[in-house]
Fold:
Amino acid sequence: MMRKTGKPPQKALRSARRPANKGRKYPAEVLTEAEVAALLRACSPKAPTGIRNRALITVMYRAGLRVSEALALHPKDIDANAGTMTVLHGKGDKRRIVGLDPGAFAVLARWLDRRAALGLNGRYAIFCTLRGASLKTAYVRALLPRLAAKAGIEKRVHPHGLRHTHAAELAREGTPLNLIQAQLGHSSLATTDKYLRHIAPEELVKAMKARVWKPPED
Structure:
């Protein structure tokens, strides 16, 4: 027979100490173009780290890359003339080629020029510290909320939210589902369809906006 000590079980103590929202996953919040612009303006336009962070955010936003994919890029993986970036180790260790627009490449080029001036060659990842050390995903996850606060953005801003914003914009622009799938690196069209229905329910919103209702007079 187990003796009662009067002390609460350790499991109960751990549960009591654990914050109520710890480990909770929140849905991604898609940013508007104005919010993305404000986020980029929050990066210092002159400091090397600001130029780098602006380029990193631009790549995640305009190419829809996962933060780990962006941080793994090396100079050899980009081709500005072709407008492509090669992700060597995507989810499931799959290789894919994504497209990137000229405007985004121009932002990236500014960092590449500054990076070269710092003496960093192709052995180092594109997005690295000023001494060539690898950036950690934790740095980026902490950076974005800080920049968002500076920019006055009240939404939750995190790396995957930029990827969701990219997907939502492609859907609004009428990009075929199979192309969005290839850009995002999803294993199936069903995954992409579910992804888009969650973050960009265009048909639902259109249908609701088309409804007519006249409020009662006071």
Remarks:
- The two ends are 71 Å apart (CA to CA).
